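Pilot study result, target chain (459 residues):
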Amino acid sequence: MAGSPKESSTILPFTDPILAARLEAIKQLAGGLSERVAVMDREFNVIYANESAWSEEVSRRSGHQAKCYEAFAHRNDPCGTCPATKLYESPEVQSVACSIGGDGTACGMHQAFPLASSSGEVENVLVLFKAPSKPSKQASGERVDVKYESKLGELIGSSAPMREVLDMIRLVADSSATVLIQGESGTGKELVAITIHQTSYRRDKPFVVVDCGSLPETLLESELFGHVKGAFTGAHASKRGLFEEADGGTIFLDEIADTTPVFQAKLLRVLQEGEIKRVGGNQPIKIDARVISATNKDLSELVKSKAFRQDLYYRLAVLPLYLPPLRERSEDIPLLVEHFMAETCKRHRQPIRAISAEVMQALTETSWPGNVRELQHYIERAVVTTTGPALSCADLVTAGSKPAEHDLRSVSRGAVTKAERMRIVQALHQAGGNRVKAAKLLKISRASLYNKLQQYDIS
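Predicted structure:
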């Protein structure tokens, strides 16, 4: 990090409970990693860095105490303007990445994330550094291909936004800190939660899903915390809550933004104390369940409008994770289409359908407002409602889904038009410019060919 150091009343992470929890989670995650991870404060002091981040020279000289530009950029003075300073200046910014050409920043920063205190102020910054380049063993002039892992569990993607998500999942999986997943509907938030659970040491313990938006407050409280016999009408026996059922595992609180202020206060106490009380009971019960929550709403905006408790927000978002919409990772669509095609054909006992370049282009250029869920349902509908060895652009139009109907149809028809024009030009070339022969090759009448030539402005 770089810039002009300024005086500030930075809250030490060891005294602020939220920063302390976040720093402890980062230490647990980054301690054994070969990747370089560090936390810096506003004055560019290194609050924490894993062993991989320290150079031998700085470590020996400073005893693991240094400014970030000394430790990571090997400079005696600040580096100048650093992208990470935006996180202090604009609290609404969720992360910054270095997109400068070459090696980027002098310190090798890859991406930085804000770490807010219990007051909501960004006091520290988590920095992930670029992996150091390894000497190539290839012969001189020989091309080296860099391949990225495109799948983690059931999550698929090789785009830059998804690589960041997959890297973050690997980083946070074995922590016990709470994770808040934010993203539009259909982006796969529950799948991310499942992947975090299955990648963690809790994988052999329960994974419990709670749809907070579908239950009224009283029922939600009873479901999560349980109740004792006689707590309310119909409570004929005591019942364990879902927090108890998830003991040792993970509990996923979906649509957390739809909960009431009263329930939010009770959930906050559970997260603070690490224990629950059943409805109608007084006996505290210790719980050991990792809490992952998700919402398709902007919780920070709800906090500003007093629609969501700020203290609960920071308890839930110790490790925040943003899941990008499909339109921001369109290069992943071919991977997803192939996966859904194989999965759907297998489920419906059909042979694998081929996908032409025109079809893939049409699917890739569609905005998909329903995101991955909409794409998956669309592919299934196209497979079930059409026949043939390959999926055609005409099949896409036939299976068009209402949310993206006009967008997808226009893209599909454009692909059909382009393919038809190319086929006519090809036939004319094969026929040496003879339109009668070209019409026979295309198996259409001369009149139809003349109309097509005029329509596509083919001379």
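One observation from the pilot: The chain has three domains: 17-129, 155-324, 328-455. A full batch analysis is planned for the follow-on phase.
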